[in-house]
Amino acid sequence: MISTNNLLEIKFISIKKGRGVFAKKNIAKEETIDVAHILLISNNDWDLIEDTVLSNYSFEWDDPKCIGEYESAISLSVSQLINHSYDPNVKYVYDYKNKCIEYITLRDISKGEEITVNYNGESFDYSPMSFDVE
Questions:
Q1: In this structure, are residues 48 and 42 in contact, taking their beta carbons and an 8 Å threshold?
Q2: What does the pLDDT average to over 48-65?
Q3: Which phi and psi (to 5°) does residue 26 adopt?
Q4: 83-84 vs 114-117, strand pairing mode
């Protein structure tokens, strides 16, 4: 177990799922649990990492000011290891001005519970993922 702050810790889950982020204590609904600064990836650099393990940890950066030049990013935070769920307990909100992502709880979270987000961006979006969802 790796402690990251007073709210979150990283734990190994399984060989298939890898690591995940867990609550170190009870967390109330609508609490910000992390603010992740991001590293923008230029489209030219994306061509170099698309077929590497780094692509598994990148996401679309939909900033209208960056379209055409920087369409991908990597989080520089514990949030990088938050797993996907179609029943998430956290949502994320892009802050384009400060180039970061805020993670906010959707409901009360119990100590020891895994932190999850819907990778599709909206908690109600059940679009298929490119991997098997457990």
A1: no
A2: 84
A3: -65, 140
A4: parallel
Q: Which two tokens stand for residue 122?
A: 């909206």
Residue 26 makes CB contacts below 8 A (sequence gap 6+) with 108, 109, 110, 111
User: Does the residue 21 lie in any domain?
Assistant: yes
Query: Is the residue at 6 inside a domain?
Result: yes
Distances (CA, A) of 12 to 18, 22, 82, 100, 110: 6, 10, 12, 26, 18
The answer as to whether 131 is a domain residue is no
77 phi and psi angles, rounded to 5 deg: -160, 170
pTM attached to this predicted model: 0.85
| Tokens 């992740």, residue located | 36
Strands 18-23 and 90-95: unpaired
Most confident of 111-115, 116-120, 129-133: 111-115
Range of the domain at 31: 2-117
Say if residues 38 and 70 touch (Cβ distance below 8 Å). no
Q: How many domains does the chain have?
A: 1
Lookup: tokens for 109: 């979270």
To the nearest 10°, the Cα dihedral for 60, 90, 26, 4?
A: 0
The CATH number assigned to the domain holding 59 equals 2.170.270.10
